[in-house]
Amino acid sequence: MARSILILVLSFSFTAHADLFDFGGDKERESRIPTLIEKLKALEMKADPSYDDAFNQHVKAIENAVEEEKLYCSGEAPDSQGKTLPAAQKQLCMRELKKNYVEATDTIFDLKKKYLGIIHKKQIDKLSEIQSKLKSDIEKNF
Predict the structure, then answer these.
(1) Which residues fall within 8 angstroms of residue 71, CB to CB, at 6 or more apart?
(2) Is the alpha carbon torsion for 10, 14, 20, 23 positive or negative?
């Protein structure tokens, strides 16, 4: 009798252990945000409206992914396969989302700052060229 109770308790504890740490064997959902960040970083930076458009499209894709993952992590929406997040994983999911979101905002800031520096330098060069031409015209006319 004691032996069967021991076997029952052990089998229950192994099952509980598997469910606790494996969450029923579901594969962990991968975030799209790191991939989108890498695509954003891979854009060739140039002082051209096409870069600005591509940059804004990538930023919008990151924002959409963050919103989708926020809904998934909070348990309000299922993933693309129709599976919802177990309650035990919500906090971990939110932490991972926060980490990815911070990385995305840092990347966006750094790239935008660099891009604005390029644009600013181009504008200063153009202004200097205009000033030189103006001085040249003044010298010729006076």
Answers:
(1) 77
(2) negative
Q: Which of 20-34, 35-49, 70-84, 116-130 shows the lowest per-residue confidence on average (mean pLDDT)?
A: 20-34
Alpha helices in 23-89 (DSSP H): 33-42, 49-74
Task: List C-alpha distances in Å: 12 to 1, 4, 22, 117.
Answer: 17, 12, 15, 63
pLDDT value of position 16? 42
CA distances from 132 to 55, 126, 127 (A): 34, 10, 9
What's the whole-number mean pLDDT along residues 47-75?
95
* Verdict on whether the full-model pTM lies above 0.85: no
> Residue 132 corresponds to which tokens in the numbers above?
């030189």
**3-state DSSP helix/strand/coil % of the chain, to nearest 5:** 80, 0, 20
Q: What is the model's pLDDT at position 73? A: 94
Question: What's the CA gap between 21 and 24, in Å, rounded?
Answer: 8
Let me know: does 75 contact 90? Beta carbons within 8 Å. yes
